[in-house]
Amino acid sequence: MSKKILLILVWIGFVSYAFTLAPPQQPDTFDLIANLSTGKIAGVNPLIVALFNIMGVLPMAYSCITFLDGRSQKIPAWLFTLASFGTGAFALLPYLIFRQPSPTFQGQKNWLLKILDSRITGSAIALSGIGLFLYGAMNGDWSNFVQQWQTSRFIHVMSLDFCLLCALFPILLQDDMKRRGLTDSQVFKILSFVPFFGALIYLALRPPTIEQSTPVPSEQVAV
């Protein structure tokens, strides 16, 4: 089975499960989302607070890969990536399905790509993600989280979305490592397959993308 077919099946399965088999939507879901979005977290399980915020950190981590990867794609990587801030893997999976292999970076990086390619940006994202994880793991109520996972569609699907985003990250890292000349680095290869922590540490340690001199035709530039 090809990678694209597998990704299509994963996307269809995830969408179908989320809207048909996941636990029912709870009446207070929109209030919970509003409170989490505005920082009103008094009385909210720290595990849920951490997970909700990590689901904002992960799209930022993906941005450091997809915006550079999208330079040579015919589809707009930025559109799928921005949509993922609200819908996670629901939006990123179609990009992974339709993107083409991109082992080199053609042309010059603009100011946005330089920021996303920076180790400082990667380190900030890594510290945020790891800090949130530790906050939730050390302060959260695990029994309460399991109960909410079993009864709340929002918590249930968000948890599965987190796992899926972590599992999909290595797909993009294969080409990202090639664009940085890391094909022979065993350390970075191992990091690329460590769920969540490996991806974050990779962003903090990776060297800059190697720019190629041949410019990309304007009709293919879809950052």
What does this structure look like?
There is one protein chain. The chain is 69% helix and 2% strand. α8 (142-151) packs across α9. It is built from 11 helices and 2 strands, in the order αααααβααααααβ. A two-stranded parallel sheet has the order 1-2. It has 223 residues and is mainly α. The model is unreliable at 215-223 (pLDDT under 50). It is globular.
Give keywords:
223 residues, mainly alpha, 2 strands, disordered C terminus
Contiguous helical run count:
11
Strands across the major sheet, in which order?
1-2
Mean pLDDT: 92
Strand and helix order? HHHHHEHHHHHHE
Task: Give the biggest beta sheet.
Answer: 2 strands, parallel
Low-confidence stretches: 215-223
Alpha-carbon distance between the two ends: 29 Å
Query: Which structural category do the helix and sheet elements fall into?
Result: mainly alpha
Using only CA atoms, what is the Rg? Answer: 18 Å
Helix content: 55-70%
Task: State which percent range the strand residues make up.
Answer: under 5%
What is the overall silhouette? globular
**Extended strand count:** 2
Describe the structure concisely.
The chain is an all-alpha fold. It has helices spanning 3-21, 29-37, 46-69, 77-87, 89-98, 111-117, 119-139, 142-151, 153-179, 186-192, 197-205, and strands spanning 105-106, 211-212.
Topology:
Layout (H helix, E strand, L loop, with lengths): L2 H19 L7 H9 L8 H24 L7 H11 L1 H10 L6 E2 L4 H7 L1 H21 L2 H10 L1 H27 L6 H7 L4 H9 L5 E2 L11
Parallel strand pairs: 1-2
Keywords: Membrane, Transmembrane, Transmembrane helix
Protein name: DUF2834 domain-containing protein
